[in-house]
Amino acid sequence: MAEFIDLVLLAMLALTALRIIFLKDLFAVVMLFGIYSFLSALIFVNLDAVDVAFTEASVGAGISTVLMLVTLAMTGRKEKQSTHSTILPLFVVLVTGAALIYGTLDMPPFGHPDNPVHQHVAPRYIEESPKEVGLPNMVTSVLASYRGFDTLGETVVVFSAVIGVLSLLGVRRTKKKDLESGLETHKVLHVVSKIIIPLVILFALYVQFHGDFGPGGGFQAGVIAAAAFILYALVLGLPKAFAVVGPKFLQWMAAAGVLLYASVGLYSMYKGGNFLDYNTLAADPIAGQHYGIIIIELGVGITVFAVMLNIFYAFGSQAERSNIQ
């Protein structure tokens, strides 16, 4: 049954991708990209990779869709007609696709218990993680403890992304009368958003601090919390969103999250351990692991929230200025 579901979802993915290729309406393309992300999330759920599905749904179908829609507000929704021949791009795509398919021929069978990944690292995590880290959610143990260096690097990459966006676009403030949102007159949206936003923020806090026991963690929580404030900005307008959480404050938050994560590693070195060795944070190594993971996940959540919202502010303010001009 699981294989049948995978085949159906893969067929839907292929049809969605083909439709995206031939569409000229960029708004429809963005919507289909969101559907593509949801289908990918369903495939991950069927593969029991719920944490990955959570991230794909929140980032791919959520924040990415909103940012692409804001980009369309600056560029227009119709794709320009190309004057170049499509033969060479088609040839490159076919050759690349053939090379990728050829490369899969030497891969071990999908899901086979004798595959190398199931013989070395995975059994080590499964057998030793409950004793060394003590968290019910093994994914969090791997990402936040065993691969703490990688997660720190990913957090720095996210922080670097906002630096690049702000360097290119910046966040431009304009007079409130010029930035009034077209949704400000919709009373139904006001009422519904005031009900939904607190619930979304509460859910983000749950995902943040329940990541040790179930799917979730700092990355997903940061994206969900940012989505709540993005909804606030879309309904009530950017000036009111700036009054609640300003761009400058978000820039400080983004840096503070990275520093909070790195400070855990520095403190563990101060206590005589290695960088990001959580065992030294408390007399009981398991308790130290818990303290360290909670703190670094909080740092990830703060950085991701600030980065996502700041990027939206940058694109949104540019789109508003383009509409005014």
TrEMBL record:
Annotated ranges, domain MrpA C-terminal/MbhE: 115-175
Chief location of this protein within or outside the cell: membrane
Keyword field contains Transmembrane: yes
UniProt GO cellular component terms: plasma membrane
Transmembrane segments: 6-22, 29-47, 53-74, 86-105, 152-171, 191-209, 221-238, 250-270, 290-315
Membrane-protein topology: Multi-pass membrane protein
UniProt keyword Cell membrane, yes or no: yes
Residue ranges of every copy of the MrpA C-terminal/MbhD domain listed in the record: 11-75
Cellular location(s): Cell membrane
Domain spans labelled Na+/H+ antiporter MnhB subunit-related protein: 188-309
Alphabetical UniProt keywords: Cell membrane, Membrane, Transmembrane, Transmembrane helix
InterPro entries: CPA3_antiporter_subunitB, MnhB, MrpA_C/MbhD, MrpA_C/MbhE
Similarity comment: Belongs to the CPA3 antiporters (TC 2.A.63) subunit B family.
Protein name: DUF4040 domain-containing protein
